[in-house]
Amino acid sequence: MQLGENSMGIYLDNGATSYPKPNQVAKAVFDFMVDVGVSSGRGGYKKAMVADKIVYDTRKLISKLFNQNDPKKVIFTLNVTEAINMALYGILEENDHVITSSLEHNAVWRCLKTMERDKGITISNASCDKDGTTKAEDVEALINKNTKLIIFTHASNVLGSIQPIAQIGEIAKRHNVLFLVDTAQTAGAFDIDMQRDNIDIIAFTGHKSLMGPMGTGGLAIRESVDFNPIKQGGTGGDSAYPYQVDYYPNKLEVGTLNISGIAGLKSALEYIQNEGIKTIHNKEKELRAYAYEQLKKIEKVKLYGPDESKDSAMVISFNIEGMRCEDIAYKLDKNYNIMIRAGLHCAPLAHEVIGTIKTGTARIGIGYFNAKEDIDKLYEALVEISNEA
Amino acid sequence: MGKLLESIMLDFIEPCTADFNRVKFHAIFDKDISEIFPYLNAQMKSAIYNVSSNSLTFKKEFRLITLHPTKLSVSKAINEFDAYEIMDMVMELVNSTYDSMSNITPLYERRANPSTIEVYKYLPKTNCKSCGCATCLSFAAKMIAGEYKINHCKTIFIEGYEEQKEKLLDMAQTFGWD
Lengths: 389, 178
Prior knowledge:
The complex is a heterodimer of chains A (about 400) and B (about 180).
Chain A lengths: L9 E2 L11 H14 L9 H20 L8 E4 L2 H12 L5 E4 L5 H14 L2 E4 L10 H5 L6 E7 L11 H10 L3 E5 L18 E5 L11 E5 L37 H17 L1 H20 L4 E3 L11 E6 L4 H12 L1 E2 L1 E3 L4 H7 L6 E5 L6 H17 L1
Parallel strand pairs in A: 1-11, 3-4, 3-5, 5-6, 6-7
Antiparallel strand pairs in A: 2-8, 7-8, 9-10, 10-13, 12-13
Helix pairs in contact in A: 1-7, 2-7, 3-4, 8-11, 9-11
Chain B lengths: L7 E8 L7 E7 L7 H7 L4 E3 L4 E6 L2 E5 L3 E7 L2 H20 L16 H5 L15 H9 L17 H14 L3
Antiparallel strand pairs in B: 1-2, 2-6, 3-4, 4-5, 5-6
């Protein structure tokens, strides 16, 4: 397989989006747009049915990836933020209680805070330690008679710390509470199993570790779970019926799908299936551990989150004493052609945990197509930058 | 034995005649699968193996599924997604049966067409002649013979005949009168 040439330099921001994608992904998007190019749904002509089949096959691939068992309840959205909004607004009503982590991305947090203000839900955050480790029993202790939902990130996008999903799933099941996992930082690089881990809803994004195009994402919903749609519109059939239909997937999907993106996502999922999640995970894990060890050697670098001995998502947040994180990112890009992200990463709660809410952090995000040499160049660059600080 | 069917391609889909909230569709098999019908007939007790149209019809819940030698006809599917799930199911059914053929005793017993009286039971019995036949009884005979189709009867499509219409459409698909 020929990888993308990465003429952009060294890309270490895979926590934001993965780059490069496997070549076959871009080819699948191109081929769809040139050779098929039409909308799915009841088009009445062969190409519309070809488009339909692409979407159907992709639902099956997602269902298999997460061991979800009901492909018609794999719903496509623009991104994981939209997916989370759809689930939260579809599930929660006035006086419902929600339990969440202390590390949530704004995709979850802003949604919950807005619903707290406007809809009268109540929120409890399970605390975590400075590395972002949460104890499942702390989640259980927060459950009350009004608890409708537990929504947890699988891994912090700031610290990388993995949350105890399987244990929380078991707790949620025992208490008959819905359990939604935000897999933005983990889907495609971690083994996620809805049946084994008692997960009711997975929110996923297509363009990070799933290696698909931006503009793809969605929900994988357990067969027994149902909730209200927040969008109404055309579904390709039953057009005379004035309300949103109640069968899946059309209940939660309206309008034209991003089929060229889904074609790319399909190809990405096939790539991942071929490579194997274990292979992908092990490579990224090794690289992260190596990166953490290297960065630890630089005196002025302060690292956050789990160290190299722990399994975590492939991000590492750090700062350099005496420097703003934005300047670290700027210098890395300008002088060394190395791309990282800096700031609060849309996750203020996580920064409250590590005490960087006023400063933010620099963050690297390692991807499947990074190499040890990329980390070595980062190390050399940070040594020089920190000497200037 | 390997696979008999490699692909099933959706060819046509539209709202169902019997139930406008459902869909009917046709799909094309990549080869003739009729050799498998007596084996499916042996395995599926409620299937109807029809002699004149060389087809096999069975139900999946409310959906009516008919396998022809090179074509799949389904009525009362829920939506496009359901259509694809049914095609997957048929592919699996055909290929798994093909794979186990040596362990199945084929059943060549075929269900005969319903009698003229059995079909007449569901017609309007108004003898309105809108189909071109003198009586509903003669229309029934001609439909069984394949000379007339159900939509030649204008009266059955009028409001009030939904149950009879649905039954006749099912029979037409099962026995190959459509």
